[in-house]
C-alpha cells in the first residue's frame, strides 16, 4: 500500500495560537497580558523573579515534613510571634531572589523588624512588601498556607529606598498577589489595570500555567469567614452582624455557610472565587491582627481589581496612610454587596 493511499487527512494544521492552554506566567507577563506597558523590562523581570521565588518556596513547603523545616526556630519576630522554621526559610528565599537582577531596592517583610535595603543602584525602581509565609499556625498540621506580596515604585530621584517608600496608601501599589500552597500551588496576581489572573504550578514541568484568567468576584456570596472564637472581643455591631448573617431567612439568602481555615490566603482565595465575606475585625480593643502593608493592602488591591471591596468596616483599605511598617488594621474583604451589609451594621443603620 503506497504511503499516499491512506485517506486520513495528513495536511498540517497550524497550532491554535489563540488557545489559552499552555500559557506560562512568564509568557503572560512578557506579553504584557497583565495590562501594564510591557515595555518596562524591569517590572516584567521583577514579577518573574517573584514567580521564581514562589517555585522555590513551593518546593520547600512541599518537603517541609522531610526537610526538617517543621517546627519552631525558638525565636520570636517583631510581632512577638513564634517564628516557624518555614517562615524563616521562605523569608530568606524571597530576600535572596528579590536581591538578584537589581530591580528591587528594598523589602518590608513580616519577618524583619526594619526595612531591608537590597540595592542602592538608581536602576532599582521598585520596593516589595511581603508576608513570606501566611498561616504559620497551619504549617505543622498540613493545612493550606501562603505567601502574600505587593510591589510599589520607589520614590523618584533617590539612590536607596527609605521607609517613606512604604508608608504610602495601598492604592499606590503597581502589582499585588499571593501564592496559595494548597492541593496545588496557585499564584494569583494583578497590576490593577489588567484584571486578576491565576496560574497553577505544574511540578513535573516546573512552570506556572494560566488556569484562572480574569477572575471576577460575584456581587454577593453565600459564605462568611470569621474567627467566632474571638466574638467576645468584637465591637457590639460586629456581633449583631454575625447573628444576622446566621438567621434562618431563606427568602433573603440566609443563613450563610461558615468557612474559616485560619490562613488569610486560603480564606481570601475562596472568597475571591466564590464570593461572600472574610472579616478580621478590630478586637482586643485594638486594630485586630492583620497587618496593613503586607496582608490587607495586597488583598484589598486584588479584590478591588476583581470587582470586590475591602474596608476596615468603615474606611476603604487602599486609602489608609500607614504610620508604621507593621501596623495592624481591621480587614473586611469580599463581594461588594456583602461588605456593604457589614458596613451598614457598623454605621448603626441595621
Ligand atoms: P501569619 O501566619 O503570617 O502571622 O498570618 C496569620 C494570620 C492570617 O493568616 C489569618 O487570617 C489569621 O492570622 C488567623 O488568626 P486567628 O488564628 O486569630 O483567627
Ligand atoms: Mn500572614
Ligand atoms: Mn506570615
Automatic annotation (TrEMBL):
Reaction(s) this enzyme catalyzes, per UniProt: beta-D-fructose 1,6-bisphosphate + H2O = beta-D-fructose 6-phosphate + phosphate
Organism of derivation: Sorangium cellulosum
Protein name (record): Fructose-1,6-bisphosphatase class 1
Localisation per UniProt entry: Cytoplasm
Pathway: Carbohydrate biosynthesis
Amino-acid positions noted as binding Mg(2+) 2 in the UniProt annotation, renumbered to this chain: 131, 134, 295
Location, primary (coarse class): cytoplasm
Gene designation per UniProt: glpX
Positions annotated to bind Mg(2+) 1: 110, 131, 133
One Pfam family recorded for the sequence: FBPase
NCBIfam families: PRK09293.1-1
GO biological process, one term: fructose 6-phosphate metabolic process
Domain Fructose-1-6-bisphosphatase class I N-terminal: residue ranges: 23-213
Cofactor note: Binds 2 magnesium ions per subunit.
InterPro entries named among the record's database cross-references: FBPase_C_dom (IPR044015), FBPase_class-1 (IPR000146), FBPase_N (IPR033391), FBPtase (IPR028343)
Example GO molecular function: fructose 1,6-bisphosphate 1-phosphatase activity
Amino acid at each position: 500500500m503506497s504511503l499516499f493511499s491512506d485517506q486520513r487527512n495528513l495536511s498540517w494544521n497550524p497550532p491554535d495560537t489563540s488557545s489559552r492552554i499552555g500559557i506560562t506566567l512568564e509568557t503572560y507577563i512578557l506579553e504584557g497580558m497583565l495590562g501594564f506597558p510591557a515595555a518596562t523590562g524591569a517590572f516584567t523581570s521583577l514579577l518573574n523573579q517573584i514567580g521564581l521565588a514562589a517555585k522555590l518556596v513551593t518546593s520547600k513547603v512541599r518537603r517541609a515534613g522531610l526537610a526538617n523545616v517543621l517546627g519552631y526556630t525558638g525565636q520570636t519576630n517583631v510581632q512577638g510571634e513564634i517564628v516557624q522554621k518555614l517562615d524563616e526559610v521562605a523569608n530568606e528565599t524571597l530576600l535572596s531572589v528579590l536581591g538578584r537582577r537589581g530591580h528591587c531596592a528594598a523589602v518590608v517583610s513580616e519577618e524583619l523588624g526594619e526595612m531591608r535595603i537590597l540595592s542602592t543602584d538608581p536602576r532599582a525602581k521598585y520596593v516589595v512588601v511581603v508576608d513570606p509565609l501566611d498561616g504559620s499556625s497551619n504549617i505543622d498540621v498540613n493545612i493550606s498556607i501562603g505567601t502574600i506580596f505587593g510591589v510599589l515604585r520607589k520614590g523618584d530621584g533617590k539612590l536607596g529606598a527609605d521607609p517613606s517608600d512604604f508608608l504610602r496608601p495601598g492604592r499606590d501599589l503597581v502589582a499585588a498577589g499571593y501564592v496559595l500552597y494548597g492541593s496545588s500551588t496557585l499564584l494569583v496576581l494583578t497590576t490593577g489595570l489588567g484584571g486578576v489572573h491565576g496560574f497553577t504550578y505544574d511540578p513535573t514541568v516546573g512552570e506556572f500555567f494560566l488556569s484562572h484568567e480574569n477572575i471576577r468576584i460575584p456581587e454577593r456570596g453565600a459564605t462568611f469567614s470569621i474567627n467566632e472564637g474571638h466574638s467576645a472581643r468584637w465591637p457590639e455591631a460586629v456581633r449583631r452582624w454575625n447573628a444576622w448573617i446566621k438567621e434562618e431567612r431563606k427568602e433573603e439568602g440566609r443563613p450563610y455557610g461558615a468557612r474559616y481555615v485560619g490562613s488569610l490566603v486560603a480564606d481570601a482565595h475562596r472568597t475571591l472565587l466564590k464570593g461572600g465575606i472574610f472579616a478580621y475585625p478590630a478586637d482586643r480593643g485594638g486594630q485586630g491582627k492583620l497587618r496593613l502593608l503586607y496582608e490587607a493592602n495586597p488583598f484589598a488591591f486584588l479584590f478591588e481589581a476583581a470587582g470586590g471591596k475591602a474596608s476596615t468596616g468603615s474606611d476603604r483599605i487602599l486609602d489608609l496612610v500607614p504610620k508604621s511598617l507593621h501596623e495592624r488594621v481591621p480587614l473586611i474583604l469580599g463581594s461588594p454587596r456583602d461588605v456593604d451589609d457589614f458596613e451598614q451594621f457598623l454605621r448603626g443603620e441595621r
